[in-house]
Amino acid sequence: MAWTFFDQASRAVFKKEMKIDHATWERAKGWALWKALITYNSTNQHVRENAHYTLHQLGIENV
Questions:
Q1: What is the residue-wise DSSP string for 1-63?
Q2: pLDDT digit string (tens) for 45-57?
Q3: I want to staple 51 with a disulfide (CB 3.0 to 4.6 A). Which of 28, 31, 39, 56 is the partner?
Q4: In whole angstroms, what is the distance from residue 63 CA to residue 23 CA?
């Protein structure tokens, strides 16, 4: 959720308020990367756009 829907500022608030530890945060990033990669070429435009957005939020510009 943090990587697939929130922008950077919202993500920071979410992480702080939820008191998420570093290891959990890194696992969440890994899950977001996995999800974005398996949906990157989806035939569903909304799903495909969200995958591209997620990769951008993760700092991955060119896939």
A1: -TTTT--HHHHHHHHHHHT--HHHHHHHHHHHHHHHHHHTT-SSHHHHHHHHHHHHHTT----
A2: 999 999 999 999 9
A3: 39
A4: 25
